[in-house]
Amino acid sequence: xxxxxxxxxxxxxxxxxxxxxxxxxxxxxxxxxxxxxxxxxxxxxxxxxxxxxxxxxxxxxxxxxxxxxxxxxxxxxxxxxxxxxxxxxxxxxxxxxxxxxxxxxxxxxxxxxxxxxxxxxxxxxxxxxxxxxxxxxxxxxxxxxxxxxxxxxxxxxxxxxxxxxxxxxxxxxxxxxxxxxxxxxxxxxxxxxxxxxxxxx
Length: 201
Hints:
This is NUDIX hydrolase. This protein is of the alpha+beta class. The chain has 5 helices and 11 strands, in the order E-E-E-H-E-E-E-E-H-E-H-E-E-E-H-H.
């Protein structure tokens, strides 16, 4: 196993920071590595705590009387200079249970009300997003959405369109559009499963 010798915080931003890691690999080779993290300081990095508390939450929900539409957002992302389809998602606030965070984020981004499902913890525990560059992890909350779409609670910095996509639209999106990978895999389940969330049983 590699050995970490020193960590330096290089930026001081609100939502994400860059850290430099000085290490030695298992082959005794010097390593200079950079990690983007939601951690506010070095002691809070997952490499220091050994914990995997979720930084964020991703919401896979279906909508409608027939439960035949999935709730997506089409969001402008500066990293792409364009739009990408994602699930509603957001950061978990300090001392907030991620299920509560999911309900809050769903309302803020879409105006919809989320009724979370109780599932096996293996399906909702936090998994890592892009481990080659960040220690960020996100939990997944599954559920049913209801109500009317509204942008009233969206932040001024966000550019979000709410999309209620049926299976035909999901097929088009996967074929033609930019899609976040975590969302794409779940959309493949949505296409395959006759009953929503069948894969959770």
